[in-house]
Design a protein that fits this description.
The complex is a heterodimer of chains A (about 425) and B (about 350). Chain A is mainly α and about 425 residues long. Chain A contains 16 helices and two strands. Chain A folds into two domains: about 100 residues, no CATH class; about 260 residues, Orthogonal Bundle (ABC transporter involved in vitamin B12 uptake, BtuC), CATH 1.10.3470. In chain A, α4 crosses α14. Chain A is globular and about 65 Å long. The relative contact order of chain A is 0.18. Chain B has about 350 residues and is mainly α. Chain B has one domain: ABC transporter involved in vitamin B12 uptake, BtuC (Orthogonal Bundle), CATH 1.10.3470. The chains are: A mainly alpha (about 425), B mainly alpha (about 350). Chains A and B meet through α7, α13 and α15 of A and α5, α12 and α15 of B.
Chain lengths: ~425, ~350
């Protein structure tokens, strides 16, 4: 039995999970420290305020508000859990998007732009097809696929310039992000999709439910009453499983990973590296587009169209989701849920204390920072004794950890 | 024309200094994707410093007495503080990249995520809104150079040169240009600069000659952080009326593009940043640009959508990179953690 446990501990997968957990705990601890420091420095918050904040950071998902005496109460909160699943839906997909690109050795920081293009395509399709002629379920699928296609086309651009012109994909992605933000604003500016009926709000696009198009709830709303959850989370999970199959069981997945491990060796082995780079970015873009489609097709979400000055955080948060999951598509489901849980925690912090939701972004950034040296944490976990054996093994077997191609040892490629 | 040149300079100078920040890091072998984050952080620190000092009332006597020399000193102090804190912030990157041999792209991205989050968190607690502004007055009345300082009256002209480069400008702009020249000389004409650059090309060879690669990389990234932090504050001061919002609209990434377009070479970078500054200026103020002074706002009346003007800097960057990236020559060892055992 003891051997079995130590065998499990030796496994690389176990170490990845442990490294991720350590990153999470350190991230939460850093967040708590900042909360404590701000609380001590600010007389209106004080230690009690800081203690409330810290408790919310760790178990905010279980928070049920404050009781009559003003103390925080905790317990199972179906609304929070349901909302967590709802917010996890796009995060899982953008996480997959970043993860697939990582496997091909590309850093897809263009997820926000692909997400925006997906948003625009989805909303235009969902709102412009008359629902009295075409059945709404068909419109739903058309809008979903249209969003994914728009994302894929947008993702192709950094892929193409990377493959054929050797422009660093990070810069190309950033530029396409801002171009997308301006383009989407341009498309919606002055269009008929702007919500002019509800006078209370300005600058928003109609909800898709305005045209009768919304994601089926599939009974999930009964399970988690008062929350926004819908069938989208199941679609996201199915896509994650499909991506797992694609990456591990098919020739295409093998070729993509081969390009990621060593582009030049892959080409030498007869794999068309340029095609695979473009394809990988297209798949990544499609996933980000699908993320936007699932989020905005839910029927109760609105899109602020004048977005040229800001990029959607959901796109950027795909990066920590993928990094925490070590680019494993199945693990992305769980890390996506974790990230959306942090989102809920942020809301609880804003609602219940004098702190605000940005502290969760600090926690996320800390986790990304730590995952930059996951390898160090893993080596630390193996202990000093076993480090030598580990190093020998790592040299014998090519590492599977995703590495942007600068680490290939061929020198800088232009950042 | 005067307006166009002034506005272009306002955008070009932060780009130039931040692109030089990128050069220092990359020449020492570290990819500094965190420029954007460091700019955001530097802008916040600078504005916070101005805000706190104003609240403490240190310079209020100078302000009342219209002692503009003291006020310019105040501004230089704020620039120094933001440079210092930018350098401190960049230590996070150099620690991960040099000591822990972490992936520099991910490390830089982490800093880019951390800076706006931390800054907005603090701004919300300090100011209870999403932007931190000066405690009193505005950037123009406190820090702008005006012709009245030199005894000119309201309707007097200082001549084309004076109107363009002295009246209604910021001293910060010229300090940045001066620093740009000095640091370029440091990088290319001194022993320190040669050693730093060698660490970005062939760190193993540098090490064999007794140069401490780790120290050089720390130096490169720290100078980079200081310049980016200062650039962030100058950007906030000159374009955003000395307000920190946790956002510099992709300026750090534009600076990276300028650096690549300028082929890691200061002279080319200066030219490239002027070009990009012009496009950024068109994007920001297309509606009030009156090129030949005849009262016709050509760009606004050309019937082109304002969205296109706003998109232009990014679009041009992509196109320019497409044409130049095949010829560009990055430092050979950038992005590769230095490992002594790997000779």
């Amino acid at each position: 039995m003891k051997q079995k446990i130590s065998g499990l501990y030796q496994k690389d997968g176990t170490k990845s999970v442990l490294a991720a957990l350590i990153s999470i705990i350190i991230g939460l601890a850093v967040g708590s420290l900042i909360i404590l420091a701000v609380g001590v420095a600010n007389p209106t918050l004080g230690l009690t305020g800081a203690w409330d904040g810290i408790r919310l950071v760790f178990v905010g998902i279980l928070s049920t508000g404050r009781d009559a005496a003003g103390a925080l109460t905790f317990g199972f909160n179906p609304t929070s859990v349901g909302n967590m699943l709802f917010r996890a839906t796009p995060l899982i997909l953008t996480g997959l998007s970043v993860a697939v690109a990582f496997k091909t050795g590309l850093f897809n920081i263009g997820a926000p732009g692909q997400y925006l293009m997906g948003t625009a395509a989805t909303l235009i399709i969902a709102l412009s097809i008359p629902s009295d002629v075409v059945p709404t379920w068909l419109i739903w699928w058309l809008a979903f696929l249209g969003g994914a296609l728009a994302g894929a086309l947008w993702g192709c651009i950094p892929g193409l310039v990377k493959a054929f012109l050797n422009i660093n994909e990070v810069l190309a992605c950033i530029m396409t992000n801002w171009i997308a933000a301006n383009l989407v604003t341009w498309v919606f500016d002055g269009s008929n999709y702007r919500n002019l009926v509800e006078n209370t709000k300005s600058g928003y696009i109609y909800k898709t439910s305005f045209n009768g198009v919304e994601t089926a709830k599939l009974g999930l709303d009964k399970l988690f009453p008062n929350s926004q959850v819908n069938g989208g989370i199941l679609v996201a999970i199915v896509i994650a499983i499909l991506m797992y199959v694609l990456m591990t069981k098919t020739t295409l997945g093998y070729e993509l990973k081969a390009c990621g491990s060593n582009r030049h060796a892959a080409r030498y082995a007869g794999i068309r590296d340029k095609r695979n780079i473009v394809l990988s970015m297209a798949i990544a873009g499609a996933l980000s587009g699908a993320a936007a489609a699932l989020y905005y097709l839910s029927g109760n979400t609105e899109f602020f169209w004048s977005t040229y000055q800001s990029l959607p955080a959901t796109g950027f948060n795909g990066i920590p989701v993928a990094l925490l999951a070590a680019s494993n598509p199945i693990a992305v489901i769980f890390t996506g849920c974790f990230m959306s849980m942090l989102d809920i925690v942020g809301l609880q912090l804003t609602n219940l204390t004098a702190y605000n939701e940005y502290i969760t972004d600090v926690i996320i950034a800390t986790i990304v920072y730590l995952s930059a040296f996951t390898l160090v944490i893993k080596t630390f976990l193996s202990g000093r004794k076993k480090r030598k054996a580990q190093a020998a093994r790592a040299q014998a077997v090519p590492e599977e950890a995703p590495k942007p191609d600068a680490a290939e040892g061929k020198g800088g490629d232009g950042v | 024309m005067t307006f166009l040149i002034q506005q272009t300079l306002i955008y070009a100078v932060p780009l130039m200094i931040v692109a030089l920040a990128g050069v220092f890091a990359e020449r020492s072998g570290i990819i500094n994707l965190a420029l954007e984050g460091i700019m955001i952080f530097g802008a916040f620190i600078g504005v916070l410093f101005v805000n706190l000092v104003q609240q403490a009332g240190v310079f209020s006597a100078a302000k009342d007495a219209n002692d503009w020399v003291a006020l310019q000193g105040f501004m230089i102090l704020a620039m120094a503080v933001s440079a210092l804190m930018g350098a401190v912030f960049s230590l996070l990157l150099s620690f991960a990249a040099v000591n822990l041999r972490a992936d520099q792209t991910i490390g830089g991205t982490a800093l880019n995520l951390l800076a706006p989050a931390l800054v907005l968190f603090l701004i919300r607690i300090i100011a209870n809104q999403n932007a931190l502004q000066m405690a009193e007055g505005d950037a123009a009345s406190w820090f702008m150079i005006k012709k009245s300082f030199f005894g000119y009256g309201r309707s007097d002209s200082m001549g084309f040169f004076g109107d363009t480069f002295i009246d209604k400008t910021y001293l910060a702009t010229y300090i940045c240009i001066l620093l740009f020249v000095i640091l370029s000389i440091l990088l290319y004409k001194t022993r320190f600069g040669l050693r730093l650059r060698s660490c970005g090309e062939n760190p193993q060879a540098s090490d064999s000659l007794g140069i401490n690669v780790y120290k050089m990389r720390y130096a490169g990234t720290t100078i980079s952080g200081a310049l980016a932090g200062m650039g962030g504050f100058v950007y906030a001061l000159t374009t955003a009326n000395c307000a920190a919002t946790g956002d510099v609209a992709g300026f750090g990434f534009l600076a990276l593009a300028v650096m690549i377009f300028g082929n890691w070479n200061p002279l080319n970078i200066a030219g490239a940043s002027l070009l990009f500054g012009l496009f950024k200026c068109i994007a920001a103020s297309y509606s009030s640009i009156d090129i030949n002074g005849d009262g016709v706002f050509l760009l606004a009346e050309a019937g082109i959508s304002p969205h296109l003007y706003r998109m232009l800097p990014y679009l041009i960057t992509l196109i320019v990179l497409a044409f130049t990236s095949k010829k560009s020559r990055a430092p050979k060892a950038e992005g590769i953690p230095y490992d002594k055992g790997q000779r």
